[in-house]
Design brief:
Layout (H helix, E strand, L loop, with lengths): L6 H7 L3 H31 L9 H34 L12 H5 L4 H58 L5 H29 L1
Helix pairs in contact: 2-3
Length: 204
């Protein structure tokens, strides 16, 4: 059998030419092995009509086996020649023929060097894309952090607005005075808390 892979032919036919030839070879060989026992049976029936014949069934079987080997040797020789001719002249696509799906290579031919340049550009673009994706993820994470900080700042501003409203209710407009007022209130609360703690201890 031929060792040439014939990949282009396999692409066109859907099977390798060597596989086709192997199937033909096996089919003929199977047919040969099937037909000879039939021939042997026919010979034995014919010999039954000759009572004086001294040829035994074993001798006939030996003769058919020899004939089978001879036929196989001759077929192998002929088949190798037939295979060479079929693979070269029938199942072979000439070098100057392009399959329809490969016409694009004829319109846009590229050398190995040009193809390598394209591969390098693709790799660079992929790396740039990955870098941009990573940068986008980092920006989104930072934006989430900024949203959280903004929410906290809004809470603090609300707290200051509430503090300012309380101070205005007590007639304090100055910010320093507001803190002094709150400090005094806090001290008073601490004093009240301590007094409550002392009373609770005495009650225990």
């Amino acid at each position: 059998m031929s060792v040439n892979p014939m990949a282009y032919e396999a692409q066109f036919f859907g099977f390798t030419p060597q596989t086709c030839m192997l199937r033909v070879y096996i089919a003929f060989q199977d047919y040969l092995f099937e037909i000879l026992p039939v021939v042997e049976t026919v010979i034995l029936k014919k010999l039954d009509g000759f009572p004086g014949c001294k040829i035994t069934p074993f001798q006939i079987h030996r003769c058919t086996e020899k004939f089978l080997l001879l036929m196989k040797e001759q077929f192998d020789k002929l088949f190798s020649k037939m295979e060479e001719v079929v693979l070269q002249l029938v199942l072979n696509i000439p070098k100057n023929v392009l399959l329809p799906e490969d016409k694009v290579h004829e319109q846009y031919p590229y050398s190995k060097e040009q193809f390598q340049v394209l591969q390098d550009e693709i790799q660079q673009l992929q790396q740039q894309y990955k870098a941009e994706v990573s940068a986008g993820q980092a920006l989104r994470a930072e934006l989430e952090e900024q949203k959280a900080v903004q929410a906290e700042l809004e809470k603090i501003l609300q707290w200051f607005d509430g503090l300012e409203n309380i101070c205005r209710e007590h007639g304090i407009s100055n910010f320093k005075e507001s803190f002094a007022f709150l400090t005094q209130k806090a001290k008073k609360l601490q004093g009240v808390l301590k007094a409550v703690e002392k009373k609770s201890k005495k009650m225990k």
